[in-house]
Amino acid sequence: MSTVARSLRPFASRVLSQKAPLSFSVRRVSPALGFPRGTIRSFSQSPFLEVKKYTESHEWIELAEDGKTAKIGITEYAAKSLGDVVYVELPAADQEVSAGEPVGAVESVKSASDVLSPVSGKVVQGNSILEDKAKFINESPEGEAWIAEIEVSDAAELDGLLDEAAYKETIDEDH
């Protein structure tokens, strides 16, 4: 469940549990009047909160809530194109990478492909699950089968990447 949904659920529950006034006239009343004092929270969302972006070379990056670390992996489209993955080369911890440089590689029965870092940063860790179970990438390419976690040098680099809709358009153009 997304962070936004988790944070809105208590608010929505309180709103829905409020009883409607018995009078038939329509009145504009501040929603704050129906809540006990001090329970209203304003909701704001950081533009960097769990941002997932894509590259034209079929990598994804998801910035964590802390705004400093991000996970990098290959897209579902890339995983399907590669076929059965047999080996994943993971990056070494503390490796410095620049945007567009390889941060790992994926080999399948069909081919091999470098995984390029969408942004600059320092590798925190590789996904150790993939050392023993490379084909996990085919099962969850945009989920738990991420390839590297990095400490992002400049979160503004994410602005130059594609959002999900723009990425899907590039896939449709490829067909």
TrEMBL record:
A Gene Ontology term for the protein's cellular component: mitochondrion
Intracellular or extracellular location(s): Mitochondrion
Matching InterPro entries: 2-oxoA_DH_lipoyl-BS, Biotin_lipoyl, GCV_H, GCV_H/Fam206, GCV_H_sub, Single_hybrid_motif
Cofactor binding description: Binds 1 lipoyl cofactor covalently.
Keyword NADP recorded: no
Biological-process GO terms, alphabetical: glycine decarboxylation via glycine cleavage system; protein lipoylation
Keywords: Lipoyl, Mitochondrion, Transit peptide
Domain called Lipoyl-binding: residue spans: 69-151
Residues annotated with N6-lipoyllysine modification: K110
Principal localisation: mitochondrion
Signal sequence interval, chain numbering: none
Cofactor: (R)-lipoate
Record Pfam families: GCV_H
Function description: The H protein shuttles the methylamine group of glycine from the P protein to the T protein.
Quaternary structure annotation from Swiss-Prot or TrEMBL: The glycine cleavage system is composed of four proteins: P, T, L and H.
Family in the record: Belongs to the GcvH family.
Name under which the protein is recorded: Glycine cleavage system H protein
Origin species: Aspergillus clavatus (strain ATCC 1007 / CBS 513.65 / DSM 816 / NCTC 3887 / NRRL 1 / QM 1276 / 107)
